[in-house]
From TrEMBL:
Keywords: Membrane, Transmembrane, Transmembrane helix. The chain crosses the membrane at residues 37-57, 63-81, 88-107. This is DUF3325 domain-containing protein. InterPro entries: DUF3325. It comes from the Bacteria.
Length: 108
């Protein structure tokens, strides 16, 4: 569940930082190429986050758990982005770096 939550947070944060407003909050200017890349990575991470949930709980319950994790990640971003936008970006990087070894280990 921790792996799915970390991937959901990283994906939701990447999608948020792909938006003009939030991108300017963190980097003080827009960068269309970076924003497109963040949106693409965000959708890919959300899709990958579904895999450990389905693997752990099966198809029907795993999808429900995934939606719950998406909701929790979005709620955390709603709390962080107005007050600490750079902290939200750092947490995205940390959750992504922390989840990649666990994802590779669980795949094997």
């Amino acid at each position: 569940m921790l792996l799915g939550g970390a991937l959901c947070y990283a994906g939701m944060a990447a999608l948020c930082l792909g938006m003009d407003r939030h991108h300017r909050q963190v980097w003080s200017r827009t960068a269309p190429r970076r924003q497109r890349g963040l949106r693409l990575v965000g959708w890919l991470l959300l899709a990958v986050a579904l895999w450990p949930c389905i693997r752990a709980w099966g198809g029907s319950v795993g999808v429900v758990i995934w939606f719950g994790l998406l909701t929790g990640a979005a709620l955390l971003l709603v709390w962080l982005l107005p007050y600490r936008p750079k902290g939200a970006a750092w947490l995205m990087g940390l959750s992504l770096l922390g989840s990649l070894p666990a994802l590779l280990w669980s795949a094997g």
